[in-house]
Description:
Belongs to the pyridoxamine 5'-phosphate oxidase family. Residues 173-214 form the Pyridoxine 5'-phosphate oxidase dimerisation C-terminal domain. Residues 43-157 form the Pyridoxamine 5'-phosphate oxidase N-terminal domain. GO terms for molecular function: FMN binding; pyridoxamine phosphate oxidase activity. By secondary structure, the chain is α+β, with helices and mostly antiparallel strands. It has a domain at 25-121 and 172-211: Electron Transport, Fmn-binding Protein, Chain A (Pnp Oxidase, Chain A, Roll), CATH 2.30.110. Helix content is 26%, strand content 32%. It is built from five helices and nine strands. Strands 1, 2, 3, 4, 5, 6, 7, 8 and 9 form a nine-stranded antiparallel sheet that branches. A hairpin with a 4-residue loop joins strand 5 (93-100) and strand 6 (105-115). The longest helix has 15 residues, at 25-39. The protein is globular and about 60 Å long. The two termini are 29 Å apart.
Amino acid sequence: MQDLSNYRKSYDKSELLESNIPEDPINLFNRWFHETEDFGGTEEVNAMTVATIGLDGFPKSRVVLLKKFTEEGFIFYTNYNSEKGKAIANNPKVCLSFFWHSMERQVIIKGIAQKTAEIVSDNYFDSRPDGSKLGAIVSNQSEVVPSRSFLEENLKQLESEYESMVIPRPKHWGGFLVVPHEVEFWQGRPNRLHDRIRYTSQDDFSWKIERLSP
């Protein structure tokens, strides 16, 4: 047993005030993302946690990479037959979260996931290195396999099969667009009086902005 009650940190790098935020969360996310990229010292600023409700009724979170964000929402790619893909097909309500510890910031996004258009998935797949393309084909993501060597041998076979050929995107692999319903920004502050600002989508396509108690 290890007691972690003395693990403490003072948060004092920045602040989040209503007087200095845009009317929509995508603009604020864009600002925070690039500030973290430029000044935060984070290697993979686009790493995010995706939480879903599984077919077994349990929530499950895993880290994936955000590949694009626009005014519509946030896009990542996966195997649609994977555990997360099946969970999203069954219940498209998901939660994304970013924790940029070097900037003492966190963003939590509740939204609805939907498959991207096939042309979007095709274009992204075509931009990937051949090794990543073949990895997407060879892996029946989330399925039990007998060994590591089983995967490696299958990959070698595919490398030989597709040598000097265009590698097509498998139909079971593609993007999800998460359309945000609620976006919360958390900025660490001294004495645990952290700043929490929540944007909630309204029926008229505007955003309601509220401050939450830490």
